[in-house]
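During the first year of the project, the team set up a workflow for recording each protein of interest as an amino acid sequence followed immediately by a discrete structure-token representation. This format lets reviewers and collaborators read both layers of information side by side without switching files. As required by the reporting guidelines, we include two representative entries from the current panel. The first entry is reproduced here exactly as it appears in our internal archive.
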Amino acid sequence: MECFMDHIVLNVEDSKNMMAFYSKILMFAPERLEEYDAGKVPFPSIRLNSNTIIDLFPKKMWQKDARDEQSSENLNHFCIALSKGTWQELLERLKANNINIQEGPVPRWGAHGTGTSIYFQDPEGNLIEARYYEDKNNVEKCLLGS
């Protein structure tokens, strides 16, 4: 069976602040931002790679959602895998922007074995793990900095 992660959804209080964080700190490419600002689409997204996006649902979408109670506390964290060089650049940006590294660098097991990880939060408290695999040269290109 072939599959890939298509998207995750983050319920956000401040779409603009979250978009700024994910595009300027993590260097993910914004999607549908102009359309969102113009009121043509209900939410903006950020692109991690050719297969995966993160949708940023504004409060008006999730406040009324019957699933809110079920889904609001279930996400522990999500992890992005980067090349070692890109990971080091991200670490520098986090430090330069005074974003607290909550844990790491630490070894952690993941989809491709053991990698080196750091943990930090976005502006609304979502925990993000960023990692690299020392012996993994074929990590799918993340759109960081491209």
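The second entry, processed by the same pipeline in the following quarter, appears below.
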Amino acid sequence: MSDQPWTVRRVLEWTSGFFSRKGVDSPRLSAELLLAHVLELPRIRLYTDYDRELPAATLERFRELVRRAGEHEPIAYLTGRAQFFSLDLAVTPDVLIPRPDTETLVENAIQFARHTVGMESPRVLDLCTGSGCIAIAVASGLKSATVVATDISQAALAVAACNAQKAGVNGRITFLCGDLFDALPDARPFDLVLANPPYIATEKIAGLDRNVRDFEPRMALDGGADGLTVIRRIVSAAPRYLSPGGRLYVEVAFDQGEAARAMASAEASLADVRILKDNAGHDRVLTAQRRP
């Protein structure tokens, strides 16, 4: 067996088995993503090039990535790419890797703006923008929207700006560095305030999967003692930055729905407080409307 050539097929089969033994998520998909990255090919091409033999230099590059993936370094960081809302985004260890769950927030925000009279050209604020995935997806889905995106990390904003340029929406997104609303130069209201803030309780960080705990930025994960510290700040301040009838959307953990609902319901300026579920049926997004 050792004398057989290392074809695409053989490499994928071996790597999938290795990843399975190491407990890497989605072993086959992970193997395909890494190999497509090394070969600089669309993943679908792997299936048409099954019998292609890989040269030694390519195998060496691939082995190094496989080794790192086996130590639970995220595939997205190894390839430098992540998919979100049909967007191909650059990601680095300076930003949280976009998750499919966050698409629930984007989908609902876009639909609200599209079906609300007077919101044909919405002004949107995206807090804790990270890779810019929410801001860019909303700007892509709402062609007349203007977006302000803030983050406390200048390194994250650099990634987001590159992503916005690649998506062709950089002319409609302004990136500002600062702590939540403090980054804003004035108090002009927004029609939509969106956020995927850190919401994991500090004591739960140690119990996260290694690929999250050891590699993703702590500041994008740690939500304080109960996980709600940043969410409280957003919910408390949001009414001052929302236009009448404007709407707030904040991602929360699957077990924070009721606490987040109670928090927003206590704000006199907010109405129609709801918790939206993701595709798996879990509580995922707090939403509330600024009273007219």
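For the second entry, the following points were noted during internal review. The chain has two domains: 8-71, 92-290. The two ends are 72 Å apart (CA to CA). Both points are flagged for discussion at the upcoming steering committee meeting.
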